[in-house]
Structures are given as C-alpha cells and as structure tokens.
Write a structure and sequence with these properties.
5-stranded antiparallel β-sheet; 491 residues; alpha+beta; elongated
Length: 491
C-alpha cells in the first residue's frame, strides 16, 4: 500500500503553521522584545497552542481514523485528553500571572491540569503498545524500565529527594512538586516501550518516533523546571520553554502522521503476523538500556562516595534494583528464545501444508474443464492454503472486441452472512499489485475493524485475468502470506 502521494491543502497549512509558530517562538526567546510584562504574557498565551493542538489531533484521529480495535481508539483519545488537560493548566497559569497579575499559587488549580495530563499520557501510550508474545512484551518493557530506571535514579538522587528535604512548603506541595519528575519518568518509560516495539510498518514507526520524541522534550522541560524552581530561578520565557511547546507539537504530529496516511492499522494479529521489532538495530541499540542505567549508577556512586567513600542505603538500593531488573530481563530473554524456536517449527509445518495445498490447487485446476468447477475448486484450495475465513474471486468481463472492460465478482465464499462487508469489498477501486487493509465491521460502525482483507492479481500465460482476495476475521496476514497469494495468482 502507498502513502498519500501529494500534500493536501490542509496538510500544507498545518505544516507551514507549525514551522511559523516555531520560528516566532525561538525568535521571541532570543530577542525578548517589549516589556517584561508583555514578554511573559505573550509566552503564557503562546504556549496554550501546542497542547491544545495535540489534544485536538489526538481526539480527531481517535474519532475519524481507522483503528484495529477499540483499544487503539481509546489510546489515541486519551493522548488527546492529555493535551487538553495540559492546555487547561496553562490557561489557568496564564489567568493568574498575565490577567490578574499575581503569583501563580502552588499548589493550585494550574497543577490540576498539568498533573492531570500524566495519567492520560501514560495510559494512552500503554494502550498503543501492540500485542506480541508475553515474553517479548515483558522484555521490551524491562528494557524500557532499565533505561528509564537509570534516568529516574538520577532524577531522584540529584533532584527529587533534594526538593523534598529543602522545600519549606506543606506536605501536599511537596507531593505535587516531586510528582512532576516522577511522572515524567513513568511516561518516558512508556514512550520507550512504544518506540522500541514499533512494528515494521513505516507509518506506525514514524508515528511512534514523533510521540516518543515529544514525550522526551516534555520530560526535559519538567526536569529543568523542577530544578530551576528548586533554586528559585525559574521565570516565564526561560530558554527551556521551547522544549515544552515543541514536545506537544510532536505529540500532535504523532496522530497526524497516521491520519494523513492511507495505510490502515492492521493490528490484533495472530502469532503469524509480522513480528514486532523487539530486537534492536545493531549492538549499540541492544546495549543502550544497560549503558544508560550503569552510567547513571556510576554518577550516583561517584557523587555519594567522593567524600567519605561510603555508600548510603539509598544508593545501594538503587544499585540492587537496577541489577534485579537486568536479571529478570535475561530470564524473559530465554523465555522469548524458546517461544521463537517453537514458533519457527510451527511456521515450517504451516508452510509445508501451504505448499501441498498450492500443488493440489494446480492439479485440481488443470483437471477441471468447467468454469464454475474451476472457480469452486480454486476457492476451496485457496481457502485451505491461506487459512482464510472467506475468499472472493474477480474475473475480467471482456467486451465484444476482446478488450478488458471491468472486473466483476465471479465467486465469493464465507461472506453470505456479512452483506455489508461484501458491499464494501465490491465497491473497492481496482488496484494493481498486492493490497491489504482492515475491513469495517458494519455500516453502522464503519471505523471498527471487521477483519483483514488481502487481495492480489490473477494471471494466466502472462496475461491478467482477474483478482483474488482472502479475508481473516481475527488475524492479519504476514509477508509470507502475501507472497503465497501472489504465487497462487500466478499459478
């Protein structure tokens, strides 16, 4: 399937507006024109736009995009809710500082909007975590926990515990103050999980990259904000403010990348689907979580023991916790390797069966003379070879001059009880090559997936004579399935 070949007017306006917003924002941070009051008011109001943009994009894609199931839809909706929650917090901050001209109370109503974004962000990211084998998911989760745990240890040792001890605010204020960096670590862990488990689909991988990068920038802002607040040095319009706005813009584009693509989400796959990229590209990517964790631990150990050469219980606890995560991760690696071995044996047996079915299909078609018998026999063997729930065969309807006129459905099996699905397939435009897309469940709920549809061309003696399509209601098709259907079409 191909992505959209040309930018639409809406896409061009959105991209140009985002670039213009970024240029103006950076220019304001560098030159700081006007009075201090104007500069603070401009930045406060200007920073409402990115989270509101991310909120709208997430909810719009949740409602208008095509999803593999309700879990994906809810995940994007919650990401949209996170953006709107943060925008409400920024609106409240702007109301106090720019319109009333008073210091923003802490803790206050602005923190309700800011902190309210974190549960939505974390839940949304985890709901987008594509399914795979349990051991594979656990390994990816543990890799992310090791990396995020190292960053969290740095945040705790150098920032959070010092904020707690040095702060003279009430207990509620202390809890809210340390919730920001701790929430960033949790969300950052979820973003790492999503990015490292992104499928081989380029659109999904690109969307996950935007989302992960956006969350990293948001976490960077919150960490620097907490540090400067600890030293009473933060003020509106600091150099770090760009990371917050740009982070939310990237979160918004994570939704738009998928909304603008013609590729549909084909998830909820069976075990024969294209596997997740639980492995990395190269040794560096495999070692990255360990490098981050042990580098963080080395910095903490150095700082803690540089005076009296004695490690505190906190540092020892951090070290044991990280080592425990590494050991558990290795256990799940062994479990995943065992699963992969069993899955490979199952795939070999399945492909052997498919090759036998393909051979039987060739023999059966060659020994059958009537067109109806050929179609019925072909449908039966195609269904067996592809392990499909339904089969549709189109044949070219030639004109009197012998020229190809149009494709008509000559046979369909397995769609008798699903007229809406058959109507959807029958109205699809003719397309060259292999095509895979998710099917709507019904006309009443066209955005809920009702299965996965794969179709390709039928050829005889180098000439195209029609198309063949297969459907699975509960599973998707792997690359080898596509190659098999292509071989069937040639046979």
């Amino acid at each position: 399937m191909q992505t959209t070949p040309r930018w639409t007017r809406v896409q061009c306006i959105t991209i140009v507006s985002s670039l213009l917003y970024s240029v103006i924002f950076v220019a304001m941070l560098i030159w700081k024109p006007g009075t201090t009051k104007f500069y603070h008011a401009f930045n406060n109001i200007y920073q409402i736009v990115p989270p509101a943009f991310a909120g709208y994009c997430g909810l719009h894609y949740a409602l208008r995009g095509r999803h593999s199931g309700s879990t994906q839809r809810i995940g994007w909706a919650w990401l949209g809710a996170a953006g709107l929650s943060f925008a409400l917090g920024q609106i409240t901050w702007t109301y106090y500082e720019s319109f009333r001209g008073v210091d923003v109370p802490f803790p206050g109503w602005a923190d309700v909007g800011y902190l309210g974004a974190y549960p939505f962000l974390l839940a949304g990211v985890l709901l987008l975590f594509t399914s795979s084998h349990l051991a594979g998911r656990a390994k990816v989760l543990l890799d992310s926990m090791i990396a995020a745990g190292g960053l969290g240890a740095l945040s705790w040792y150098f920032l959070v515990q010092r904020m707690w001890h040095k702060s003279d605010t009430a207990l509620l204020g202390k809890i809210i103050g340390v919730s920001y960096p701790l929430g960033d670590i949790a969300v950052l862990c979820g973003a790492l999980v999503l990015f490292t488990s992104a499928s081989e689909n380029k659109v999904v991988r690109r969307s996950s990259g935007f989302l992960a990068a956006g969350i990293v920038l948001i976490a960077f802002f919150d960490t620097t904000f907490s540090y400067y607040s600890l030293t009473n040095a933060y003020h509106t319009g600091m150099w770090t403010d760009w990371s917050l706005s740009f982070g939310w813009i990237l979160v918004g584009y994570a939704s738009l990348v998928k909304l603008w693509s013609r590729e549909t989400e084909v998830g909820a796959a069976g075990e024969d689907a294209v596997p997740l990229r639980t492995g990395g590209r190269g040794i560096l990517r495999l070692l990255m979580p360990y490098l981050i964790a042990f580098s963080a631990l080395a910095l903490i150990v150095y700082d803690d023991g540089k005076v009296d050469h004695i490690l505190s219980p906190t540092t020892s606890g951090i070290g044991f916790a990280l080592m425990f995560l590494v050991i558990v991760r290795q256990v799940f690696t062994l479990m995943e390797n065992r699963h992969l071995t069993n899955n490979l044996e199952r795939i070999v047996a399945m492909r052997t069966h498919q090759l036998k079915s393909l051979h039987a299909l060739t023999n059966a078609v060659n020994n059958t003379l009537q067109t109806d018998q050929v179609l019925a026999t072909a449908s039966l063997h195609i269904k067996q070879a592809m392990r499909a729930d339904a089969v549709v065969i189109w044949l070219l309807d030639p004109t009197e001059n012998g020229e190809d006129e149009h494709l008509t459905v000559s046979l369909h099996e397995g769609l008798e009880s699903r007229p809406d699905t058959f109507h959807f397939i029958d109205t699809l435009p003719i397309q060259e090559g292999m095509q895979m897309l998710s099917l709507p469940g019904s006309l009443k709920e066209p955005k809920v997936s009702g299965g996965v549809f794969l179709r390709g061309g039928l050829r005889w003696q180098q000439k195209r004579i029609g198309m063949v399509g297969v459907i699975r209601w509960a599973k998707t098709f792997s690359r080898t399935d596509q190659q098999l259907l292509e071989s069937i079409g040639i046979e």
